[in-house]
Amino acid sequence: MLxxxxxxxxxxxxxxxxxxxxxxxDAKLAAAVSNAGGLGIISAMNAGENYVREQxxxxxxxxxxxxxxxxxxxxxxxxxVAKLVAEEKVPVVTTGAGLPGxxxxxxxxxxxxxxxxxxxxxxxxxVERGGATAVIAEGTESGGHIGELTTLALVPQVxxxxxxxxxxxxxxxxxxxxxxxxxxxxxxxxxxxxFLSAYECGIHPNYKQKVLDAKDIATQVxxxxxxxxxxxxxxxxxxxxxxxxxxxxxxxxxxxxxGVGAVRKAAVDGNLQEGSFxxxxxxxxxxxxxxxxxxVDDLMRETERLLGEAxxxxx
Length: 315
Ligand code: TUI
Hints:
This protein is an alpha/beta fold. It has helices at about 5-10, 25-35, 50-60, 80-90, 105-110, 120-130, 150-160, 175-185, 205-215, 235-245, 250-260, 260-265, 290-310, and strands at about 15-20, 40-45, 65-70, 90-95, 115-120, 135-140, 145, 165-170, 190, 220, 230-235. It has 13 helices and 11 strands. β8, α8 (about 175-185) and β9 form a beta-alpha-beta unit. α2 (about 25-35) packs parallel to α3 and α3 (about 50-60) runs parallel beside α4. The protein is globular.
């Protein structure tokens, strides 16, 4: 059976994290993934502490396994939510879209395992020095807010640079991606897009259908001009954003204002015109709706088979 330091450090059966996706990753999805033996993660996104507290309590009611809370460091409520997770002593905190340094002492004091998303070697080294349990090296193939480097380039460089376990993210939707991540030096994976098709994922049916219909070149990156590149499925919203981004008459403030609320419009309302349907480059590999348990079991079975057969190439 495939095991790694990630399983031991976090207390999970399988080294599979479910990404903390804004307006997607709620307590129900997180508990389903944790009950399946992976690590389910609640997204604190831009929400206030009351919403996040409610989700933590709901997750505890639905599973007695470890789970995580993802803190988006650009959130206007980051201070309050950072304090809340320490009070609640959630088992794991993952962070994204920034440097978690100033919050880490309080989280570590509360006994929380901190696993930041890192887009580079320098940031991986920094969070290791700050006491991180592991890092998530997320390549630019992923959905949502992205860094520059690909998973193929980033993971082995981060694995060489730190002693703590590396979890690979970005472009991983099946056992082939997961086996490849282990060959690059990762000891776990984080999947986001693959879990969009889970029965327990409560997004609007239009969002699920868009993922199931996606082709290889279905995603587009916008927001580079604002310093926050974001990958989403192409649609009228992403096309319009791309157009405004190139227009010198449009100010950065106007451009940012155009994007406000678009992720909610996709996930909650299923608004095909005005929503931002965040998804990674592997959306086309997501072919059917399944339970979170079926997804985790498929990933593990395929990965174990591929890694077991890998010696066939050496004669
Ligand atoms: O955070 C994500 N993915 C996200 S956050 C998000 S909400 C949002 N929406 C619109 C614009 C911006 C955010 C949607 N998807 N993934 C983890 C991630 N973290 N990707 C890249 C990073 C990252 C980037 C820079 C982590 C640390 C970092 O530090 C350097 C710095 O300058 O802060």
